[in-house]
Design brief:
This protein is an alpha/beta fold. It has two domains: 139 residues; 291 residues, no CATH class. 26% of the residues lie in helices and 27% in strands. Strands 7, 8, 9, 10, 11, 14, 15, 17 and 18 form a nine-stranded mixed sheet that branches. Strand 10 and strand 11 form a beta hairpin. Helix 2 crosses helix 3. It is elongated, with a radius of gyration of 25 Å. It starts with 7 loop residues before the first strand and ends with a strand.
């Protein structure tokens, strides 16, 4: 159950400002505004009821105070905006007049936190009036509660890596970054029990047992013969769609890692990214992030190499412009400098993307050799890497990824990853005009 912390009710009592916020800007995407701060200080995320109309709670939202912007004014960020449309007088009739004294006036700052007992009575009234509005309010309370601590449970590292893989897929699909920010911020962990997959924490996502919901046998041949759990979602931008699946053959807390396979259908380009967590190490300059390849890494690298032996990357000018690549190998590693699972964060994990062939070069380079014969990869000795932003751009525009016969044989990599005990995030970007997805079992998430 959410902690009993109370919340805020904020009345935007400046008509011109209210009209600007309601009519000029998209409230669904959240907003920030400079509000008077005489009697309240929201420094962590808090649940708020917003009143853009006198006498009505028009929205539920999360709010957090930022920096002072003028005398008596602070910047307040509002996110996770959810329409409410509740009569304040009807709630007050059930709760009593004590609510009115706590309503914060945006113009003056007068008012304060609604006490926990009054907030609880308000929720009972909201539940009687609109059960969907109460469910939205309680979801925001869970987000608030989870934002105040890191989530440390069995499987949390795997879910954190899946979260990053989904975020990267969204950025490769949507260059504005809005889809990724909206989606990652909206994730909540289950209140109790084991973590399953990242997509399970998103609203409107359906879980399907023991079948792969990637419908095209030509794309994923024979994969459906492997028993596993699949969670899938469809994201839409106009006529373009991004289908994302979490595929886990084993329990997530025993997963040996995460792979992201992204298919840019417009270029028939598959890009496979294998995630690795860096450790904290020491150097002459202080603490650093370091990755030390182990036996598991060696096996995974060899598996990629074995795939490439019968299917080397080749191209001809006659193949056309869509087949041109800066890197046609398709295999990358992401070394993550910090892996933690948190809510209300829109950021991808810090780290570096390295092409497989570049990693092979580094592993025989003297700069990565340790004093005892081992190898280590750091931001310093790799000398250069691909950032989150650049990698998403390269994937989006088809500059990297498989081509030709290797693209048609990519299901072998899916099978190999699942057999190795890794969680797989499959993403398919479908351009405008692509045939409609015949599988109606997936929930559409339209942003």
């Amino acid at each position: 159950m959410p902690r009993d912390l109370g919340g805020y009710l904020i009345h935007f009592d400046e008509p011109q400002r209210t009209e600007f916020l309601r009519d000029i800007r998209s409230l669904d995407e959240g907003f920030s505004d400079a509000l008077s701060s005489a009697d309240w200080a929201v420094r962590q995320w808090e649940v708020c009821g917003l009143m853009f109309e006198s006498g009505r709670i028009t929205h539920w939202a999360l709010a957090r105070r930022g920096k002072k912007v003028a005398t008596g004014k602070v910047r307040v960020e509002f996110t996770e905006m959810t329409p409410a449309g509740l009569s304040f007088s009807a709630i007050e009739g059930r709760v009593g007049k004590r609510m009115r004294a706590n309503v914060v006036r945006a113009r003056s700052g007068v008012g304060g936190r609604v006490p926990p007992v009054t907030w609880r009575d308000m929720k009972l009234a909201v539940g009687e009036m609109d059960s969907n509005s109460l469910a939205a309010l309680e979801r925001l309370e869970r987000l608030r509660d989870q934002s105040r601590e890191l989530i440390v449970r069995p499987g949390s590292e795997t879910v954190a890596l899946e979260r990053d893989a989904v975020g990267l897929a969204l950025d490769a699909f949507d260059e504005s970054g809005q889809l990724r920010r909206h989606t990652l911020r909206g994730w909540t962990a289950p209140e109790a029990g084991d973590l399953t997959s990242f997509l399970d924490g998103l609203g409107g996502v359906h879980t399907i047992e023991d079948q792969l919901v990637a419908r095209d046998a030509a794309v994923f041949p024979d994969v459906a013969h492997v028993r596993h759990t699949v969670t899938g979602a469809v994201f839409s931008l106009g006529a373009r769609k991004l289908e994302v699946f979490n595929v886990n053959r084993t329990a997530i807390e025993t997963s040996l890692g995460v792979d992201l396979l992204y298919w840019n259908e417009a270029f028939n380009a598959w890009t496979l990214t294998q995630y690795k967590s860096m450790e904290r190490g020491r150097s002459g300059k202080g603490e650093i992030a370091v990755y030390r390849p182990d036996a598991g890494f060696v096996d995974e690298l060899a598996r990629m190499q074995r795939f490439r032996l019968p299917y080397p990357d080749t191209s001809r000018t006659a193949d056309g412009g869509a087949a041109y690549r800066l890197n046609g190998d398709g295999f990358f590693f992401k070394l993550c400098a910090r892996v933690q699972l948190e809510v209300l964060s829109e950021s991808l994990l810090p780290g570096m993307y390295l092409p497989r062939e570049y990693v092979e070069t580094l592993l025989v380079d003297s700069t990565t050799a340790g004093p005892r014969g081992g190898r280590s990869l750091t931001f310093e000795n790799t000398q250069r890497h691909i950032s989150n932003t650049l990698f998403a751009e390269l994937v989006r525009d088809g500059w990297v990824g498989t081509r030709g016969e290797s693209s048609s044989r990519i299901a072998e990599i899916v099978r190999a990853s699942l057999k190795a005990g890794r969680a797989v995030v499959l993403a398919r970007s479908r351009p405008s005009g692509a045939p409609a997805n015949p599988d109606e079992t997936l929930a559409a998430v339209d942003i």
